[in-house]
Amino acid sequence: EAQVTQNPRYLITVTGKKLTVTCSQNMNHEYMSWYRQDPGLGLRQIYYSMNVEVTDKGDVPEGYKVSRKEKRNFPLILESPSPNQTSLYFCASSPTGTGFYEQYFGPGTRLTVT
Amino acid sequence: GQNIDQPTEMTATEGAIVQINCTYQTSGFNGLFWYQQHAGEAPTFLSYNVLDGLEEKGRFSSFLSRSKGYSYLLLKELQMKDSASYLCAVSMIYNQGGKLIFGQGTELSVKP
Predict the structure, then answer these.
(1) How far off is chain A from B27, nearest CA to CA, in Å?
(2) Which residue of A has its CA nearest to B51?
(3) Secondary structure (3-state) at A85
(4) Residue B95: CB partners within 8 Å, gap ≥ 6?
(5) Could you report the per-residue pLDDT of B47-100, keeping only the tens digit for each?
(6) Could you tell me if B100 lies within 8 Å of chain A, comparing CB atoms?
(7) Which residue, A2, B2, B17, B88, is the most exposed by fewest CB within 10 angstroms?
């Protein structure tokens, strides 16, 4: 089944404790992206990747890191999480980064930082 | 800057028709997407418009006017399961690739 998977689905952590949210897609997509979704603010892009070893900042990159060493995986790293990073996070992928194709979203990771 | 506006909430009756509007001001326009998102779930693709006009897909239709920076999503024969948030997203040319800018979403409640 073609899909985007994320782990964990739910995470409660404390301020400053490094964490990684994994994202994997099995559709051989070139483009992958991370979003956060907050009430009243909609989906905002954190980082995106046009292909392996090519990543770039989105609209809200502060406090996050990403890497794209393999085509299928695009982990999101929070080196020192803070309470303002409490949010619902979605990973998404698309066949290319041209913007002409729909994005397929993972199921989401609900993160709470206390 | 980039701006996408859609109503925050709408209410409609089961079996009726509802139109959700979206206006946008962006640069490097590639096309416009509509996504459906049920509470706590991932957005799922509904439609994509790149040329002016109406795209029909079963009970859902989407319209685009590039000159007016305007789109709407039309839902016919509303069902209770259509209660969800509907996200308008503009695809832009950005850094030699594409970028998706989302509106805040329209929360649709379908009443019996």
Answers:
(1) 13
(2) A100
(3) helix
(4) A56
(5) 999 999 999 999 999 999 999 999 999 999 999 999 999 999 998 876 656 788
(6) yes
(7) A2
Chain A contact for B15, CB < 8 A?
A: no
Residues 57-86 of chain A with CB under 8 A from chain B are 58
What phi-psi label fits residue B21: left (phi over 0), alpha (psi between -120 and 50 degrees) or beta?
A: beta
Q: How far apart are CA A47 and CA A39, in angstroms?
A: 20
Which residues, in sequence order, are bridge partners of residue A92?
A33, A105
The reply to whether residue A102 touches residue B99, judged by beta carbons under 8 angstroms, is no
CA–CA gap between residue A91 and residue B73 (Å, rounded): 25
d(CA B106, CA A22): 29
Query: What pLDDT digit, counting tens, does each position of A25-54 carry?
Result: 999 999 999 999 998 888 999 999 999 999
**Residue of B99, B111, B103, B112 whose CA lies nearest to B20:** B103
